[in-house]
Amino acid sequence: MNRRTVAVIDIGTSSMRMALADIDDSGNIQPLEKLTQSVRIGQDVFTKGRIRRSTIEACVRTLESFQQVMREYKVDKENIRAVASSAVQEASNRETLLDRVAMATGIEIEIVDDAEATRLTYLSVLPVLQDKRRTTTEHTLVMEVGGGRTEIIELRNQNIIETRVIRLGSLRMRNQLEQQRTPQEQIPEVLDQEVSNSLHQLKDDFTEGNPALLLLGGDARFVATQFNPDWQRDNLQSVSLKRWQRITHDILQMTTEQCVEKFHLTFAEAESLGPALYTYARFAEDLGCKTLKVGAFSMRDGLLKEMAQEQGWTEIYQEQMLDSSMQLGRKFSIDEGHAKEVSGLALQLFDELKEEHHLGQRYRVLLQIAALLHEIGTFIGSTSHHKHSMYVLANSNIFGLGNRDRKVVANVARYHRRSPPKSSHPYYQSLPRRDRIVVLQLSAILRIADALARSRGRRIHKIVCERKEETFFIRIPGVDNLHLENSALRVKGKMFEQVFGMNVILVKG
């Protein structure tokens, strides 16, 4: 069985981490090695709003050391994925960091937004949700307090019910305490006010029922190992709320230096510990949880699982994305029958044209969402509704869609009619070159699907496609009169001809 060695790199608020693993043809992951290096990006960003030059160079040196290890494992460039989240995302000079790293190491860093981070976290915890030997509850809240933000995912079995990401981070809180020069004895009081203000908005969303609380992150793992030094990371570790509160109280009485000395932590680990543990404890109290479960999962596990799959969106995850899309569509009173008709035809065309567009499952889902919502702008007005659709989709939250994917969907919906993309269209031109090509391909397919659904009678359910030289024949079984469809195709088919280099002909029977 063939194996490939991959590397995933997570650039966080206070450290950079790399995991290496072997992945076989069946998608099985065999961990090889993990590396961590403290680099205090968040300290710069959360105090000054930008990353200092010395910190940027520290990032470069760390990645160069990671590269040396990757060379030893013979990791090819295409099997490396590097991501950065909140701290880099918020830095005013983030492009400087990305460019410097790319020039020095050749590594392209991808900034993941909240939606993408949630998806990767979900992928990381999915194995434990599927294994009933390790989890016995159907209702679970997954929570991770990071340096810059707190992420909460509500799940029933394997289905995501709700997600929240709030700007409540352990390093942010630590910096606030230092800037205010808070006396050691007043730290619990100040933290209580900060955490209470942030968690108040979540109380009504997540307090129904009796969910289990699953905690992620290095600070939570610290507590788990304090009570069970022999903890096997493949399992969940349970800690009573009382014991959690007790160790939290003890740590809040210590200075960062004292935590470093007593627990043998790095300074970066020690300074975030108290605020993070206090946040977990307060949330557990609000939920009425008597026991907290800790998992040894991270974004890197999600990245590895994604690299092991043909695509990172599981079937269940895709269903939830499409359900969220339809919920948005209903808010804007879309014609559901027409939306599903166009969507179904677009997917058939996408599958028939896979040798031409070379796009994977991810883009098939984006086309499906764009097709379902291509007329959402008619709620605002029928005139120029394609432009209204772009505006609505660009500024709406669809579960699972990150900022980049949302831009692609909005552009595809915008170009389902009228003018094709032009250099004078700023929203299209703001896309990376690769995404502009994707928009051209998906929009051309969507236009043909929309033309085939011209009668709005759901007459066409199945199509049979055939290529002959420079002509793409679409055979329509069981439909004799194609006058409306041919009329629409004469207008909408031009973009398809330009993009795919084939004329489109409808054939009866």
List strands and helices in order, with pairings:
Elements: E1 3-11, E2 15-24, E3 29-38, H1 41-48, H2 53-72, E4 80-84, H3 86-90, H4 94-105, E5 109-111, H5 114-130, E6 139-145, E7 150-156, E8 159-166, H6 170-179, H7 187-206, E9 212-216, H8 218-227, E10 237-240, H9 241-252, H10 256-263, H11 267-287, E11 291-294, H12 299-308, H13 315-331, H14 336-352, H15 354-357, H16 361-372, H17 385-394, H18 403-414, H19 426-429, H20 433-452, E12 464-468, E13 471-476, H21 483-500, E14 503-508
Helix pairs in contact: 2-4, 5-12, 6-11, 7-11, 8-11, 9-11, 10-11, 13-16, 14-16, 14-20, 16-18, 16-20, 17-18, 18-20, 20-21
Descriptors:
single chain, alpha/beta, Nucleotidyltransferase, domain 5, Hypothetical protein af1432, 3 domains, six-stranded mixed beta sheet
